[in-house]
Amino acid sequence: MPDIINCIDYVVDLVAISNDPSGERFSEATWQINYLSRVRTARLAKERRVKRYILPSSCSIYSFQENVVDETSPTNPLTVYARANEMAEKEILSLANKDFTVVVLRLSTVFGYSPRMRFDLAINGMTYGAWKSEKLPLMRDGSQYRPFVHIEDVAEAIITFLEFSEVGKINGEIFNIGGNGLNYQIGHLGKLVAKIAEEVTGKKVEIEWHGDPDKRSYRVSFNKVIRQLDGSQKEMRSMEFVR
To answer: Is 186 within the bounds of a domain?
Structure first.
């Protein structure tokens, strides 16, 4: 492993057990991979003089909040996945110095097409169910909020932080990644996806409720990334979804 990092300038650490249900089912592996291995990678990167380390984390560490939260708000992780992310953030951010730039990106729930599709994510799962069986799966009770972001915006955000030249503005910082217009209640979002699916397929789509009431609910502000980067970001691909 250490040899892989030799002569590398930038590290984007994407290793992770990547959702709450998997984190609960494989809790020991989640702690080892999402927390311990990422901290080890960051330390090795620093030892080998990597210039910039980016940690894609998750807005799920907010977990339940009454008000709109930003990067200065207290976290409230309720799952193994969220707690492992929080621990990784804290230890890795402490490694930042003038020679080793560390940036944490707290991603919203991702949606959109990719060559290796994930259907465990909210919008993707809803769309797949509506298309395949005319039954859109929705976790009870639908009042919970989530922020969303398109996969292309995630990729663009990572590239932006790799290329951003004013290191002092981003080193040792946390940035929420998403769009202020993409904080949705799950119930409302499900109805929107069902409506679009019906228009595309010409078939009636039913909402199919499942699971216990979701205790995770959070609305997130994304103003910091725009302010810190002087408004240089383009309009997000994600915003096309809500039009």
So the answer is: yes
CATH, residue 128: 3.40.50.720
Of the candidates 71, 108, 75, 104, the residue with the CA atom closest to the CA atom of residue 189: 108
Residue 228, classed as helix, strand or coil, is: helix
| CA dist., res. 146 & res. 214, Å (int) | 11
Contact yes or no for 94/41 (Cβ under 8 A): no
Q: Return the structure tokens found at 122.
A: 């909210």
Please state the domain count of the chain. Answer: 1
**Residue range 184-221, pLDDT digits in tens:** 999 999 999 999 999 999 999 999 998 888 889 999 99
Tell me the C-alpha distance between 209 and 158, whole Å.
Answer: 35
Cα four-point dihedral sign 212, 66, 218, 54: negative
pTM, two decimal places:
0.91
Tell me the C-alpha distance between 46 and 228, whole Å. Answer: 25
Assign residue 153 a region: left if phi > 0, alpha if psi is -120 to 50, beta otherwise?
Answer: alpha
| Contacts (Cβ under 8 Å, ≥6 apart) of 79 | 20, 23, 24, 60, 63, 216
Question: Would you say residue 240 lies in a domain?
Answer: no
CA 15 to chain centre: 13
